[in-house]
Each structure stands twice: as C-alpha cells, then as structure tokens.
Amino acid sequence: MTGLRTNQDLDPDRLREVFGSYPSGVVAVAALVDGVPVGLAASSFTSVSLDPPLVSFCIANTSKTWPDLRRAPHLGVTILADHHSAVARQLAGAVEHRFDGLPLIVTAEGAVTLEDGLAHFDTTIHHEVPAGDHTIVLLRLIAAGRSQLPDPSPLVFHRSRFGRLHSA
Description:
Layout: H1 12-19, E1 24-25, E2 27-33, E3 36-42, E4 46-50, E5 53-60, H2 66-69, E6 75-79, H3 85-91, E7 104-106, E8 112-114, E9 119-131, E10 134-146, E11 155-158, E12 161-164
Antiparallel strand pairs: 1-11, 2-3, 2-6, 4-5, 5-10, 6-9, 7-8, 9-10, 11-12
C-alpha cells in the first residue's frame, strides 16, 4: 500500500496531520469553579458504556484549564451544534473570556452546559487514565438530555477546521 511510512515518520506534526483525517464531534466541558465558569472545548469525546453510563474525553497533560476544572464536583458536557464554530474557538481562547455572552445552564452541583447545544450531560469524574502526553478522562453520567432543535446537526472538527455534516 503506498503512502504508508515506517514508524520513524511518526513525529508529532505528521501524526497531527494524519489524525486530522478522521472527523470528530466537538464538546464543551465546563463547571463552576470557585463560583466562576471554567471550561474547554474537546474533540475527543466518545460514549464508553451503558452500564455503568460512561463517556470520555482526552485532555493534554499540558492543559492549564484541567487542573482547575477537575476540582469541580460535577462537570457539564455539551455536544456542540454546527452553529457553534465561533463558540468552539472562544472556548479554546483566552480563559477570562471563554464564556462571555454564552447562554449557560448551571446545575445546583455546578455543572455548566450551553443552553443551545445538541445534548447535555451532567457528569462526575469516574476515573483518569494516563495515556502518553494526554489523560483519558472517564465521566460517569448523572443526567442526560437532548436538544429539541428542529434540524440538529453536530459541529464537526476535520483537518483542523470546523464544519458540518452534509446529507447524502
């Protein structure tokens, strides 16, 4: 098969390019920490288990946000819709402006979700698994809900760009 290279070509820039060939959805992970919304965007979210109900995302070990966010008793996860590309960029930007102007829902336990997301989860940290330069965070679902948007379509991250699914 052409195009395959040996493992000596697995430098981080090359891997980022190759991994970018696979599209993924985008979520916001957020909570109140010391009374202030703290959060981030993640493109590594996936369902894991129905029993017990678990989802996961991966976070870079160099994240400056995760050490604060992981202190929260509950984390909110929002599946972002295709109209959220600017929101995803905002959540990856300056910490002090990540939630400026965003319509938020905050649970009594401090989980923060975006009001107009495709789906919302209230979660707690179940387990963290070290995995190279990232950590796999397993989250246990406490509550889940789906949007009632008339034509829900997820935000898609592909080749370092945001986009949407197109019907065939």
